[in-house]
Design goal:
Chain lengths: 258, 273
């Protein structure tokens, strides 16, 4: 039943993707656009099929960086959000700094990341975590703060202490909000990874997708740029999909209906 | 150990509540005015009055959720169970987990608290729904779960704040019957806030009728034993009691309107038996 529902749900997006590819191919042939500006969908597919190995290695590298950065953002964001929720004074002092961190463009911070972490994975992971952490902090804080006041009163009646109220009421109440933050962060993580790779990743045999994109761009290999972009989108989609699946399992208690 | 808001004037026995000139003001709103009453151990008392008169505030004072500004509210030793107007169940917990919550917070071991929660669920006849989530229950079943949670600690006091007010008439009467049965078997000190004259007479041995705000006792009426028997609901004794209660309720409202000169004072919301 679930498989059938999932298949039915995939029909719409599949048709949209097929239509977009059709329009792309049609525009290419109708307007005679040069290959280095817009290669045909077939040329992009052929480029990948002809030599998939560097692309697959790059995808693996990018996926590892995105996953590690996302995990750090998830753990760090939940921890910071929880800490901020414990005291309004701490929240007022620290939250604007996290907000400021979110406002500064990643490209402006990247040179600092290279200075501190050097070229390579640590800087890429750091840029991923920086981009992905804010929604987790904001949603954790909002979730922990937004519990129903009448349930707070219930816990008071039952003689619960501050820590017990936090653990048995505030945290479970916040789970749906935290999960929403994680899903947003999963979507952002790949953006942080690719941007980090543009600025701080190393080339060579194990060059990640960000390097594949910049190298292909410099050589006017637009078909290779397209392959890398599609694969980067796949990494983002996989991370988001995995987070959504785990979320659904975790949220079972909150979403279950008769 | 008595719970007080001021030095207790006399010793309060376990299961007993003593109010001496208990008053409560919120800013400029005078909610409760110098209420004197003693509620005996194992008794069932209904607090009846028009909407917003301060009966809920008085109940919360008895349950130590509010303090009194003047006078004293003294409660004897013993656990307290409280049912609010809404069930207040945690949506991510099953019925049995919700009912076990007071024991969990008190540090009772998992196996023991689940066994005691199941026993409390059986007492309110909700056995079949023990492993369901609140959203899978009807309104009446949620209130039963809330009642089971209040009873799981075997309380000496059970405070109910219009717990069945949002339910349909049939479910409400069904729950009234079960509550009545529970009280007769377990004899906790029951204090109930209600708008309904028939419910007050059916559930309580004694009805304290309150004036519109600030709450003052305008009548302290015993209810006839015959009211406990659902089969005799149409009896003359019951009708007389209902009439006396309604008269006291209306009398309090009229007296308050005369004294305050408020022509737009609220009328009673409870039905007439």
């Amino acid at each position: 039943m679930n498989v059938r529902l999932a298949l039915r749900g995939a029909i719409g997006p599949a048709i949209t993707i097929a239509a977009a590819i059709g329009v792309w191919a049609l525009a290419k042939s109708l307007f005679g656009i040069a290959d280095f500006v817009l290669p045909s969908p077939k040329a992009v597919a052929d480029t990948f099929v002809a030599d998939p190995q560097p692309f697959l290695i790059a995808t693996g590298e990018t996926a590892i960086s995105a996953t590690i950065g996302f995990a750090i953002a998830a753990a760090g964001g939940i921890a910071i959000g929880s800490m901020l929720s414990l005291s309004t004074r701490v929240e007022r002092s620290v939250y604007p700094i996290t907000l400021l961190f979110q406002m500064v463009p990643l490209v402006a911070i990247a040179p600092l990341l290279v200075i501190w972490c050097g070229y390579g994975r640590p800087a890429v992971v750091a840029s991923t975590a920086i981009v992905a952490i804010f929604p987790v902090i904001a949603n954790t804080l909002a979730g922990l703060r937004s519990r129903a006041p009448e349930l707070d009163e219930l816990f008071r009646v039952l003689g619960a202490g501050r820590f017990a109220t936090w653990r048995k009421l505030a945290v479970p109440s916040a789970v749906p909000s935290i999960v929403t933050g994680l899903r947003i962060a999963a979507g952002l993580a790949t953006i942080g990874t690719i941007t980090g790779e543009f600025l701080a990743a190393e080339g060579g045999e194990r060059a990640p997708l960000g390097i594949q994109i910049t190298t292909a761009m410099r050589n006017f290999q637009t078909d290779r740029v397209f392959v890398a972009v599609v694969l980067a989108a796949c990494v983002g989609f996989a991370l988001f999909g995995l987070t959504s699946l785990v979320s659904r399992a975790v949220l079972g208690r909150w979403m279950r209906t008769g | 150990m008595p719970t007080t808001d001021a030095p207790t004037p006399t010793r309060v026995e376990p299961g007993e509540i003593r109010l001496v000139a208990a008053s409560r003001t919120f800013g400029t709103v005078h909610a409760v005015a110098a209420v004197d009453a003693t509620i005996a151990k194992g008794s069932a008392t209904a607090l009846l009055g028009p909407s917003g008169c301060g009966k809920t505030t008085l109940l919360r004072m008895m349950a130590s959720l509010e303090h009194s500004d003047r006078g004293t509210v003294a409660r004897g030793a013993g656990a307290v169970g409280l049912c609010f107007q809404e069930p207040r169940l945690l949506p991510w917990r099953t019925v049995v987990e919700n009912v076990a919550l007071p024991l969990e917070l008190a540090g009772v071991a998992r196996d023991e608290r689940l066994a005691r929660a199941r026993e409390a669920i059986a007492r309110v006849r909700l056995d079949d729904a023990a492993s369901r989530f609140p959203r899978e229950l009807s309104g009446g079943m949620r209130m039963r779960a809330s009642l089971a949670r209040a009873l799981v600690t075997r309380p000496a006091y059970l405070f109910l704040d219009e717990p069945f007010g949002a339910l349909d008439e049939v479910t409400r009467h069904e729950l009234d019957e079960e509550l009545r049965g529970l009280w007769e078997r377990e004899r906790f000190t029951l204090v109930l806030v209600t708008h309904s004259v028939p419910e007050a007479i059916y559930l309580a041995e004694r009805v304290l009728v309150f004036s519109p705000r600030p709450a003052r006792i305008v009548a302290d009426l015993p209810t006839p034993a015959i009211a406990r028997d659902a089969a005799t609901w149409t009896s003359e004794a019951l009708a007389n009691c209902a009439r006396d209660t309604s008269t006291a309720l209306l009398g309090g409202i009229r007296a308050n309107m005369r004294s305050s000169g408020r022509a737009d004072s609220q009328g009673p919301t409870g039905g007439h038996a």
